[in-house]
Design brief:
The chain is mostly helical and 169 residues long. A three-stranded antiparallel sheet has the order 1-3-2. A hairpin with a 6-residue loop joins strand 2 and strand 3. Helix 3 packs across helix 7 and helix 5 crosses helix 6. The chain starts with a helix and ends with a helix. The model has no long low-confidence stretch (mean pLDDT 84).
Length: 169
C-alpha cells in the first residue's frame, strides 16, 4: 500500500471515529460499526463489484452483446467444446443460469449446441458468427477494463488479482 493511500485510509478512519463519537449512542448498538464498514471484506468486495459491473454494463449497453453474454462467449471459447457444467464452474455460477444465458446465443446462431453422450449434458461451441461477435465486443471490454483499472497504479492490479484469486479458491 502506498503512503498516500495509507494516509488517506487512516484519515478516513479518524474521521469515522470522530463522527461516531459525536453521534448519540443508541442502547444496545455495537460501537464499532464504522470499522465494520471500513474493514469488512464482504462489504468492500460487494461495493467494488457493483461499481465495476456498472462500468462494464454501461460500456456493453450500446453493443450487440450484454456483459453476461460476452462472459458466456469468452468462457465457451476459452476451452471448446465446453459443457454447461464447465462454463458454470469457470463463471462461479449454476447450470440453470448458464442455460438461460446461452439459450438466446444459440437462437442468434452465435453458439452451436448439441447433446453429449449423456442426453442430459449439452456441449457448446462458438460458431463463426459467435467468434465475430466476440471479436467486435473486445474493444468495449478493453475500454471498460482500462477505465476500471485506472485508479490502480503500478503493481496494484496484479496484487489485487492475485489476492482475489486466492479468495475465490
Amino acid at each position: 500500500m502506498t503512503r498516500y493511500r495509507y494516509r488517506r485510509q487512516r484519515t478516513e478512519y479518524t474521521r469515522a471515529i470522530r463522527r461516531r463519537r459525536s453521534r448519540p449512542r443508541l442502547s444496545g448498538q455495537v460501537p464499532d460499526l464504522d470499522q465494520v464498514i471500513m474493514l469488512c471484506p464482504g462489504y468492500n468486495l460487494g461495493k467494488a463489484f457493483k461499481r465495476v459491473s456498472r462500468r462494464f454494463e454501461e460500456e456493453f449497453r450500446s453493443g450487440d452483446l450484454s456483459l453476461s453474454q460476452f462472459a458466456m462467449l469468452v468462457n465457451i471459447g476459452v476451452r471448446e467444446p465446453a459443457t454447461g457444467t464447465d462454463v458454470a464452474e469457470r463463471l462461479g455460477s449454476d447450470i440453470s443460469t448458464v442455460s438461460r444465458t446461452i439459450e438466446p446465443l444459440v437462437e442468434r446462431g452465435l453458439v452451436h449446441q448439441k447433446r453429449g453422450s449423456d442426453r442430459r449434458v449439452r456441449v457448446y461451441r462458438l460458431t463463426d458468427s459467435g467468434r465475430a461477435a466476440l471479436a467486435s465486443a473486445l474493444p468495449r471490454w478493453k475500454r471498460a477494463k482500462a477505465a476500471v483499472l485506472s485508479p490502480l497504479r503500478g503493481r496494484g492490479w496484479s496484487e489485487t488479482l492475485a489476492n482475489l484469486r486466492r479468495l475465490a479458491g
